[in-house]
Every structure is written in C-alpha cells, then in structure tokens.
Amino acid sequence: MAKKKETFQRKQTPIRTTRSQRRTLIKKDGELPDGYKKGVVISSIGRVYLVGPTESDSDNEANIIECSPGGTIVTPHQDTTIIAVGDEVAYIESGSDGESDIPSGVIVKVYERKNSLSRRAAGKRPYEHVIASNADQLLITSSMITPDFNRRLIDRFLVAAEIGGIPAALCVNKCDLVDDDIFYEQFEVYDSLGIDVFFISAKENLNIETIQDYLEGKRTIFAGQSGVGKSTLLNRILGGEVQAVKEISERTGKGCHTTSYVKMFRMPGGTSIIDTPGIREFGLWGVEKSELALYFHEFDEYRLNCKYPSCSHIHEPGCLVQQAFVDGLIDEGRYESYIYLFESMED
Ligand code: GDP
Ligand code: ZN
C-alpha cells in the first residue's frame, strides 16, 4: 500500500507544475496596460504573490499588494519559474479581494533577472526552479554540530551560487557547543578559496554583529538545512519583523503551509533578507556533469594538464587533480564533495 502511494505522488508533482504554468501565457514582448506599477515579489505562496515596493523606495513598509499572475505575462525568461521571490515585476491594481484587507493586483510583467539561485526541478522534463532572484549575496547557514556540519550541502550551494552569479559566504552557527580547534580547522579550506566564514552563536548572541555588517544595505538569501538555527538567527536580526511577515503570509496563504515558502524581510536602510525553506539536498541546474570541475577552484591549477581532455578527475590515469589530492594539495572533504556531486548528476 505504502509503495503505491509513493508512486502516485511522484507522478503527480510534475503534472501539476506543468498545468499551473500553462494557465499563464508567456510572451517575450508586449505593451503594458496603462497605470501599471512596479514592485518586487516578497513572498510566493501557491499562486499568491505578495508584491512590495523595492528597497530603494522610501516607504517600503507600506503598500503591500497581494497579486495573482495575469493571463498573459511579459517576461524574457522561458522554461523556468515564471515568478520568484526577488523578481522585479509590473502589476496593475484590481481592488481588494474582500477577504483580507490587503489590496490586490495582477502581475503583467517580470523584468529580466540579474541573477538567481536555482535548483533542478525533477520531472519527465526537468526545468529550472528559481528559489530566489536578484540577490546581492547568499549566506549559507550551517551549524557546527546538531546537525553536523554538512559539507556536501555547503559545496552544492557554493556551486549553485556561482552558476547563478551570486557571491556566497558561510555562516557556522552553534559555536557555543564546541571549543576544540579541530572543529574550526575544517573551514580553513573555504578561507583559502576566498569565501568568508562567520562563526556565530545565534542562541548566545555571539558574533551576530559580524553578520549584521555583512547584511548591511544588501539583499541576502539565507539558505541551509533545517535545524541549524536559521530561524533563531533571523529572529535575532529582525526581531518583530519575522512575526509580522509570518502573519501577513498566513492571512494570504489561506491554509497553505507557510513555513515552507520563500519570504523576503525588509529592514530600514535597504537591507533585506530572503529566507528559504530548510533543504537537505537539491539537484544542480545549469551545469553539465563535465563542467562541474570548473566550480571547484582548487582544481584550477591542475585540471588543464590532465592526460585526457575529458578527464573526470576521479579515475583516469594521468590525472593531475587526483595526484594533487594524493599529495595533500587538495582538501579531502572538498574532493569527496566533488565526487559525490559528480556521481549524483545525470550523464
Ligand atoms: P532552523 O530549523 O534552522 O530554523 O532552526 P531553529 O532556529 O528552529 O533552531 C533549531 C534548534 O537549535 C533549536 O532548538 C534552537 O534553540 C537551537 N539553536 C539555534 N541556534 C543555536 C545556537 O547558537 N546554539 C545552540 N546551542 N543551539 C541553537
Ligand atoms: Zn583529471
């Protein structure tokens, strides 16, 4: 019985996705209706999108509009999520929906994305699922222990961030639980790759100001696996704001599980945070298996001189990357991540 149910769910997901995308006609060009306004998507719950003024607008706390996608949307993006949190959009107001006191509108255009954090959405025909777009940076949140630091997930996020064109940094939480240097040494490799690593304790309020400095004036995506303390950190940084956005999302969500949705929190001074659901693993989008090594920059000085141009750097003879690993010049955990990611990708 249980097996049957699993098969049923697997089949349903891609079909539903395709249908919901078909309800909207996508056009590359087109005239916008008179009286349209511009805004940024701050949350997406099913087919309900909250749109607010961009961070550069002075009154960005006011004027949140609950939007649905128009019958036709003008967008340069094809075969991808039509509307994602972070997207700049044009909408027309259509009054209030009567149920909530939030004004409603219809999204008629999605402007070109500057960048995006994307994953591969599974299905018969895989497509790009945009987790969030137009970000200045990605903060990959993890914890020292409980749950253990998940290097594969971190390295996967680093690759996805680079593919999407978003600079990334690491935040390692729960530092109050460890004091042995050995815990900290495992992050030295990231330092050598030029990736900032922040050691914090959200619970003990340790080093939170370094995170605040990093966030200042930027739009940052927070991503990581659940349990690492992302909510605790967000509460620390945002205070009451988290609750306020939660409430508005719950009102508009109409019973959806709002905790699993992407939400943008805005703070004074043009600082904003895009919170994403806890994720353990995800498929990479926008990279061929044979290109994966390009995103492991510690391979750069070796990979061009491998004996075979199509070297996977895993088993071929005459591979200088493998040699560098054997000689202790490439970090073991990172090399393992590479193999794991490589093997998880389709040919
Ligand atoms: P999320 O799933 O990433 O949002 O994680 P939560 O914020 O819900 O935290 C998960 C658990 O870790 C909770 O029991 C928190 O109290 C705990 N926690 C969060 N931050 C810290 C920290 O810095 N140190 C310790 N010791 N526990 C923490
Ligand atoms: Zn090689």
Describe the structure.
The chain is an alpha/beta fold. The chain contains ten helices and 14 strands. It has helices spanning 2-22, 151-164, 181-185, 188-192, 208-215, 230-238, 240-253, 300-303, 320-326, 332-344, and strands at residues 25-27, 37-45, 48-52, 65-74, 88-96, 103-110, 116-121, 127-133, 137-143, 168-173, 197-199, 219-224, 263-267, 271-275. Strands 11-10-9-12-14-13 form a six-stranded mixed sheet, with helices on both faces. A five-stranded mixed barrel has the order 2-3-4-6-5. The protein has a two-stranded antiparallel sheet with strand order 7-8. Strand 9 (137-143), helix 2 (151-164) and strand 10 (168-173) form a beta-alpha-beta unit. It is globular. The model is unreliable at 1-21 (pLDDT under 50). Residues 173-174, 176-177, 201-204, 226-232, 278 line the site of guanosine-5'-diphosphate (GDP).
| Rg for CA atoms | 22 Å
Unreliable stretches (pLDDT < 50, length at least 5) are 1-21
Order of helix and strand elements from N to C terminus? HEEEEEEEEEHEHHEHEHHEEHHH
* Beta-strand residue fraction: 25-35%
User: Any idea what the shape is?
Assistant: globular
Topology, number of strands: 14
By secondary-structure content and strand pairing, the structural class works out as alpha/beta
Strand order in the largest sheet: 11-10-9-12-14-13
Helix content: 25-40%
